[in-house]
Amino acid sequence: MDLTEDELVAAITRLLTGEARDVVVGLGDDAAVLAAGTGQLVVTTDMLVEGVHFERSSISPRDLGAKSVTVNVSDIAAMGGSPRSALVSIALSPDVDTAWVIELYGGMRDACAEYALALVGGDTNRGDILIVAVTVIGQVAPGRAVPRSGARPGDAIAVTDSLGAAAGGLRVSQASAAVRQAALSKPWGRALLGALARPFARVGEGQTLARSGARAMIDLSDGLAKDLARVCLASGVGARVELNAVPVAQALRDGAETLDVDALGLALSGGEDYELLATLDPDDADAAARALRERFGVTLTTIGTIIEGDGLVGVDADGSEKPIEPEGWDHFA
Amino acid sequence: MDLTEDELVAAITRLLTGEARDVVVGLGDDAAVLAAGTGQLVVTTDMLVEGVHFERSSISPRDLGAKSVTVNVSDIAAMGGSPRSALVSIALSPDVDTAWVIELYGGMRDACAEYALALVGGDTNRGDILIVAVTVIGQVAPGRAVPRSGARPGDAIAVTDSLGAAAGGLRVSQASAAVRQAALSKPWGRALLGALARPFARVGEGQTLARSGARAMIDLSDGLAKDLARVCLASGVGARVELNAVPVAQALRDGAETLDVDALGLALSGGEDYELLATLDPDDADAAARALRERFGVTLTTIGTIIEGDGLVGVDADGSEKPIEPEGWDHFA
Question: What ipTM was assigned to the predicted interfaces of this complex?
C-alpha cells in the first residue's frame, strides 16, 4: 500500500457520497449512528476470503466489491427484509495497490446504489491475504421476518428464476483455455460468467414472498441441495423434489455439452445463485408466482413438496426416487 | 479443521446461549432479527488480523475472543451508546483446531456477558491466516451521540483512568526472555500484560460523559497523540496538552526502568488503552469527573485545552512548547 490507513480511509470516504436520510453519523467516526424505525432490524455478516471465495485473477475488484455487498443483501432479502446500511472491514495484502482498492469500493458503491443502502462504517487493515467482511443492517415489519424454521408438511417448495448459472460460470473460469475461449465466444458463456461475477439479490421478491405467506425462506448461496437441507433441518421436516421441475438456467443447458457438465447436477449442488427458496401453502405459491411475474418479471417455480420425516428425496420423471445428498458448497471441504 | 462448517456453526451456536430479549431471530438463519427501539442505532465494525493485531503465541484464544468484542464495544462507548448485539465473521487457518475455536467463542461470550450484548449472527470461513471481524450494534438516545467533530476552542480535554499500560504490555511481551521473566515476577509486569490482553470498554463512563455535555469523544485505540489529532482534524481545531498532567499508568511508571522505555512517550503514542478522551466545557469536565468517580470509581483527568488552529502542542512543566506528532499506531505503517 502506498497510503497510510488514514489516507486510505479519507479516499474511501470521499468516494462514498450519497448517504441515506436515516444516517445520523456516517463514515469517519468511532461508530455510525442510524435512526431506528418502528420496525425490527435484520442484520447479517459475510466474509469473502481470497483463495476460498474468490481468486483475484478471475474477478475484477469492482465485481468483488459489488458481490461482497450483494451476498449480504441477499441474506436480508431471504428474511423478507429491506436493507438499509452496510459496514465493511477489509484486510489488504501488500501487493494490493490503491487503484485496486478504490475500484473495490466503487463496486460496493454500485451495489449500495442498486439496493438503496448507505455504507456507514468500516475498518481497513493490512494482512497477508485479501479479505472483505461486510455487515448489512436492514428493517422488517414486526413479526414479518421469514425464518428457515417455518416449513410444514404439505408446503410447496418454490424457487425464483433459475439455478446453476453461477456454478456454470465457475466451470467456465476453471476450464482449459480452449474451452474458456469457446465459451466466451457464445452468449451462454458470457451469461454464466456474468452470473458468477455479478449476482443479484432478490430484495423485492423476498418481500413479496413474505407478504404472500412464505413460511420458510432461504437464499441459495450454497446450492439447492444444501440450503433446502438446512430449511428441512431447521423445520424438522423432509422434502420431495421433482427433478424435472427444477428450473435449470438456460445458459447452463446451452453450455453443458461444451463444458462437459451435468446441468441438473450443477443446478442442484452448485452455489452462489442467490435465488430465493421459499415454502408456502400451495395456493399461496400460485398467488406469489403471479405477483412475482407481474411485479418483477420473475418466474417462481414449484419444485416439490415438504413432507414429514427428514432428508431430501429426488423424484425422477418416471416416478423413481433417490436420496439427494446435501453436497453443496462447504467452505471447509 | 476437523469439523464441517455446519458442524462448527452448530457447536458455536450451542455455546452461545442466553440471548437478549430484543432478539427476535438469533443465530442460525440467513440474518438475525432484532427489535428496533425508539432510539437511534450505533453500529461499528473492527477486524483483528493475525500478524498485524495479534500473534497467536502471545494471546490466548479466550483473551482474543473477548478483545475482539471489547474493541467494538469501546467504539460504541465512544459515541455515548449502549451496545446491544454483535455479529462475528471469522477466517480460520488450517492449523487451528476446534478446541481453540471454542475457546475463542468462549471469550466472546465472556465479553458479551460483561457488556450485556447478544451474539446474533456470523460467518465462519477457512483462510490462510486467522482473522476475526466483529460488528456491534448499539442504541443511543436520539441526538445524544457524541461525534469526533464537536470540539470547540476553550474545551477542556479529558481522559479516563490512565494511559500507556497496554503499550507497556506489548513491550513486555516483546522483551528478551530475561526482562520478560523479571516483569512477570512483579505486579507491574502482570498488570501491563493484563491491560494488553483484556482491555476494558468504558460503556457507562461514555454515557455519563455524553450526559455531562461531552462535545467530542473518541476511544484511545491508536494512542492519545493520533486519536486526539483525529478529533482536532474532524473538529477543525488544535490542542494544547499539559504533558505533566497526562495520567501515565502506575504499572508503566513502575516498570519503565526495567523495560527501558519512556513512560510518558508510551502514554502519548501507545495504542490499545481503550480509555475515552472527551472535550467538554471546563465546568462540565469538573462535574463529569465527580460523576465518574462516584459512579465508577474512575478518574477523569483534564490534560489540556482545545485551541483555535490545528495540530497538537505539548507543554512541558517549565512552560516550553513543542509539537506532538500524531505518531500512534498505523496499521499500514
Answer: 0.83
> What does the pLDDT look like over A242-263, one tens digit per residue?
999 999 999 999 999 999 999 9
Contact: A43, B121; criterion CB under 8 Å: yes
Q: B215 contacts in A (CB within 8 Å)?
A: none
B residues 270..299 contacting A (CB < 8 A): none
Do β-strands B82-92 and B118-126 pair in parallel, antiparallel, or remain unpaired?
parallel
The answer to whether the Cβ–Cβ distance between A45 and B6 falls below 8 Å is no
Looking at the DSSP bridge assignments, the partners of residue A141 are none
pLDDT at B16: 60
Q: Which tens digits make up the pLDDT trace of B163-185?
A: 999 999 999 999 999 999 999 99
**Chain B residues inside the 8 Å CB shell of A45:** 87-89, 121-123, 133, 135
Helix, strand, coil abundance in chain B, percent, nearest 5: 40, 25, 35
Contact B61, B191 (CB under 8 A): no
CB B49 to CB A125 under 8 A? Answer: yes
Tens-digit pLDDT profile for residues A129-138: 899 999 999 9
Spatial contact of B94 and B3, defined as CB atoms under 8 Å apart? no
Q: Residue A102: CA atoms inside 13 Å, Cβ hemisphere, count? A: 12
pTM of the model: 0.88
Over range B44-63, report the average pLDDT. 90
* DSSP letters spanning A74-116: HHHHTTT-EEEEEEEEEEE-TT--HHHHHHHHHHHHHHHHHTT
**Closest CA relative to residue B91, chosen from B30, B142, B49, B59:** B49
The Cα–Cα gap between A76 and A72 comes to 7
Which tens digits make up the pLDDT trace of B245-286?
A: 999 999 999 999 999 999 999 999 999 999 999 999 999 999
- Torsion of Cα atoms, B10 then B16 then B18 then B24, to 10°: -60
Min Cα–Cα distance to chain B from A319, Å: 32
Could you tell me if A176 lies within 8 Å of chain B, comparing CB atoms? Answer: no
Q: Which of A47, A88, A148 sits opposite B123 (nearest CB)?
A: A47
Question: Any idea which residue has 449472527 for its cell?
Answer: B121
Q: Which domains can be identified in chain B, with CATH numbers?
A: 5-140 (3.30.1330.10), 148-324 (3.90.650.10)
Query: pLDDT tens digits, residue range A191-247?
Result: 999 999 999 999 999 999 999 999 999 999 999 999 999 999 999 999 999 999 999
Mean pLDDT over all residues of chain A? 90
**Residue A53 touches partner B, C-beta closer than 8 Å:** yes
